[in-house]
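Residues pack. Consider this:
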Amino acid sequence: MSNKLLHFIVFSLAGLAVFLGGYLFSRKSDPLGQQALINNSLVNRFDKAEEKYQAPSGLFELTSGEASFPHISIAGEILYYLPKSGEIRSLSVAAPVAGTTLVAKIQPGASRIDWATNNTLLANYPTGAIFYDLKSNFSKKYDPLIKNPSLSRVGDKIAYTYFNPESDEGNISIADPRMESFKNILPTRFSGWQIKWLSDNKLALIKPPTLENTHLSLFTLNSESGALENILEFRNNLQIAWSENGQKILYSYTDPATQVNQLYFMDMVTKTEVSLGSQLEALKCAWSINGKTIYCLGGKSLFSFDTSASGTQPKEITSLDSSTAIANAVHPILTSIEDYIIFKSSKDGKLYGLKIN
């Protein structure tokens, strides 16, 4: 009985030695190991591949529904506002099919939004204006007597008309956005000034039509000295597009004699009106960053004007067979590298992009 037990133990040890030898040999011939291969295959199977999108060409939709006040952020993305929900969203013009990102949600129904580079914005509403700091989640609702406030480009100042209807007088003033301090610049008896920052110390003032005067006039105001300068006076259907540095204006108005709309530009240094020989509206145009080229949408085409050349004439850049969106384009802007022009269609309210060839 003991001999049988001894033989069983010997054979068991020999079998175990053969198994261990084969295992060790297989490990040497495959240094990665079978388990490593299995793990590696799982990683390859379930790792999400980076999605790549082809940049759009021609004309394309950026939003599926109504959107307003498009703005190019410092990062090069498009920020825009949904007036019905109050949502502020962003998207990449190079990959609009990738979808949008919710940036913030503010009060719906804004009639105008001024964007600043420091992640702040100023929204004007029929009932008043609200300042928003998106970074700190701070908001400030302004006194209803503050009319048409405008936020500077860097977001450190606002300009506005403070008007008391009981005394029928007020002031054009500037202040910090949180209204901790302010400075009166110019007394006024008109409450409806439309104000825009041109530089750190210069404002553009538009006097819109009234019951007494149906024409528009344009002024500039120095916020330090209070000097007021008349630029354009008593123009009918006046529309204005300012260059990035505020040194040039593109504008259109209707000639009272011919009743024909004409497009012009002016250098603020020379104050000379230059006709561009076109009946396009300034509402459909945007300046290049260098302040030399103007891009305008009209009919079914995109045009450009070189204001640095003598005898400026429109040059057709892109033409589509038919485009309701281009025909109804308003308030276009250029992307940061000027490869696309972004605009809203006044007909369907959507935002569109058009590749600049």
About this structure: The helical segments are 2-29, 34-46, 324-327. Confidence is low (pLDDT under 50) at residues 23-50. The longest strand covers residues 228-242.
